[in-house]
Amino acid sequence: MYSKQSTYKNYDLYRMEKKDFDLVKGFLDESRLKLDRIEFFYPYKDNELAEVLDKGYFLGLFDKEKLIATFGIDFDEEYAKQIADVINGCNNIGIDKAYESSGLMVDADYRGQGIANFLMDEICAEAARRNINICGVVQICNTASMTTFFSHGFELRGVWSMGGKYDFGYLLKTPQSTNFQNLQKNSNLILQCPSKYDIIVDVEREVDNFDLSGQRKLLAENYYGIQCDKKRIFYIRDKERKL
Ligand SMILES: CC(C)(COP(=O)(O)OP(=O)(O)OC[C@H]1O[C@@H](n2cnc3c(N)ncnc32)[C@H](O)[C@@H]1OP(=O)(O)O)[C@@H](O)C(=O)NCCC(=O)NCCS
Fold first, then answer.
1. What's the alpha-carbon Rg for the chain, to the nearest Å?
2. Which of 123, 171, 192, 209 fits a disulfide with 149 by CB distance 3.0 to 4.6 angstroms?
3. H or E stretch including 138?
């Protein structure tokens, strides 16, 4: 791993590299096997993990010697184009690339301490430095992960079903993303007053998380998701906004 990047609570953040492959793979495999819903973390193939460690921006958080959390950005250009195609096919916003922000995993013993939010801050800061679009490809019922993305200003701009248990939401953050403070304020209002949508001018509809075709329809009508709870994703349509 490279030199220490920063700290969070008593934990140390490092940028990981190719020679950390075994450590990262062991952590991800072991953590994934412990999940109640294993489909919430789609595993890397070995070559994909080696690539993201070698050429991507991949972070590891440590409690002393123990790896307790990971998150990164994959700079694979082809995949970035494929992600943009899925998004443009659903929401037609004309982006050319969106690099996947992948590998978000927090050890079960360390969840609920704000670690995912901390890692997300670091990843968003790196994307801003590079002036790139990033996109989380997240199982649509994975409320904890979806919330982490939404609360950092990511927008649900695409959906794609792989079949089986795998229904993915594409959560996009561009360098021009809507003012994050406003989004968070709106999101909080929605969650506090779920039946009083008229207090938020732009919020017009909600759709059940499992209703992929309903969500496709909304995305095609230029709505995009800005927040979720365990059952619903909340959409708005910003008619003024151009990407
Ligand atoms: C998703 C995950 C990374 C969250 O990590 P965490 O460190 O516990 O999250 P944080 O404490 O930083 O909380 C982040 C946000 O998610 C929310 N959240 C966390 N756990 C939640 C849960 N079980 N249900 C609903 N929301 C949850 C928090 O309230 C917080 O919201 P806010 O930003 O609006 O304040 C963790 O649960 C995990 O590793 N899950 C298994 C792997 C996985 O699903 N990875 C994502 C693949 S796309």
1. 18
2. 171
3. strand 134-139
State the pLDDT at residue 149: 96
Q: With a threshold of 0.85, does the pTM exceed it?
A: yes
Cα–Cα distance measured from residue 215 to residue 159, given in angstroms and rounded to the nearest whole number: 8
pLDDT of 243 over the 50 cut: no
Residue 41: CB within 6 Å of ligand 1?
yes
| pLDDT value for 193 | 52
**Dihedral angle sign, alpha carbons of residues 70, 167, 136, 21:** positive
What are the boundaries of each domain within the chain? 72-236
3-state secondary structure of 153: coil
Question: What is the C-alpha to C-alpha distance for residues 114 and 106, in angstroms, rounded to an integer?
Answer: 10
How far is the centre of ligand 1, averaged over its atoms, from the C-alpha of 182 (Å)? 21
Q: Is the pLDDT of residue 202 over 80?
A: no
What residue owns the CA closest to ligand 1's atom 25? 144
Is 241 a residue whose pLDDT tops 60? no
